[in-house]
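Hey, I'm writing a tutorial for new members on how sequence and structure tokens pair up, and I'd like a real worked example in the thread rather than a made-up one. If someone can provide the structure for the chain below, I'll link this post from the tutorial.
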Amino acid sequence: MRLEIGADPAGGTPALEEHVRDCASCRQFREEMRTLDTNIRRALERPPGRVGAPRLTAPWRPWALAASVLLAMLAVMTVWLLRPSDTLAHEVVAHVRQEPESWLASRQIDAHSIDEALRGAGVKLDLTADRVTYAQSCWFRGHYVPHLVVQTTQGPVTVMILRNQRVASRRSFQESGMTGVIVPAPQGSVAVLARGNADLETLASQMQQEVRWLPDAP
């Protein structure tokens, strides 16, 4: 979505408008890009002539235009790079939306199936099996990661153990009707999501403690 916003800050498709209504970070990103786009257009416009006012000589005008474009590109890159956790959160939500059946699972998963889902990511989980109703090993950002659904007093909660995705600090987010948090871990991070509003802090802290990172992971 951010690539679409960056390509045309003033535009907007129905899908994009629906997304930015639910995603505060993308909504702010679009506002910043629209402001930047307006400033660039003003910089590139030829100022109106004034009697006695000095004019930019022709040989220097291409350099001024090139400098304006370069500054715009640097600004876009800076805004993008300052929000890596926002991008990760968006991709986690997109992945969960692609597996809507995971929320509906109600049958308990046996311990062997849970271990199979965890093995490829090089982790083990001390969580009791009777709370897990969905366990898959999913391809995410170039790696297989465990995608679990855990039953809690607040309803089903999705947990994704992201061994190769590091975050500097805890990051909460809301998008597409989901509430989520991504927390740092010794070998990566852990994402916890629920539908609607939910207090995920306790479960996120629990997952930080119960995930065991194996030293011989792929």
